[in-house]
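Justification of resources, computational component.

The compute hours requested in this renewal are based largely on the per-chain cost of generating structure records like the one below. Each record pairs the submitted sequence with a full structure-token output. That output is archived, and it is also reused by downstream analysis tasks.
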Amino acid sequence: MLKLGEKIIIVDDRFEQNLPLGEYGYVIAYDRNNDSAFDYIIRVPKANRQFYVPGEDIELEETLMELEVERIEREALIDFALVTRNEELFKRIMNGGKEEEEIVEESSKEVLSREEFIRQVNLKAWI
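The structure output for this chain reads:
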């Protein structure tokens, strides 16, 4: 649940209320009516209006900034990998780090002794 006074950005208009998409606003109240589909009442200074909105229509400005920073960082790493012809870095970025997880899983499997492996198989068999 968002706090009162938090800066938000309108990301969707599910109920077609002509919300100003992409504009910022502030949470000014909660809609506590159980029969209502709306969660918040927001104030949009640019439109000089208040709107009733569901929680899915708005997002914190900080969250959107973090997502944008991650996207830009990923694109910069891809560009760097292409310029330096670093195939390993490029594959790791494009796979989202899945290879690292597989390497860790493989190394943990190799460490098991024969007795430990048999014990784990027997334990799983009982389950």
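Residues 61-83 form the longest helix (23 residues). The beta strands are 7-10, 24-30, 40-44, 49-53, 58-60.
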